[in-house]
What we know:
Layout: E1 2-9, H1 15-22, H2 27-35, E2 39-45, E3 50-57, H3 60-68, H4 71-80
Antiparallel strand pairs: 1-3, 2-3
Amino acid sequence: MQRVCFLLRVRRERLAEYRERHADVWPEMREALRASGWRNYSLFCRDDGLLVGYLETDDFAAARAAMERTGVNARWQAEMAPFFEGPPGRPDERMVPLAEVFHLD
């Protein structure tokens, strides 16, 4: 099992709306994530826009590829892209896992 943590940055002026959107994630997006092997997926956000994502999966590359094959992911990413700082494009393409340095098992 892989534990994956990544960082992104939400635009401060869009932070309230970003939080609102995640209070009601589309049921088909939630199902696609589960079916693609994303478990224990959580997002945390500071008031300055720093977003921390965490998930557990058997194989992160395979889980990402499975999401890529879904139509719902493309729609969701297109809707979420304007909320993020950084280069244009899909936020899921900027999920770079952080190196794990400690885990209390």
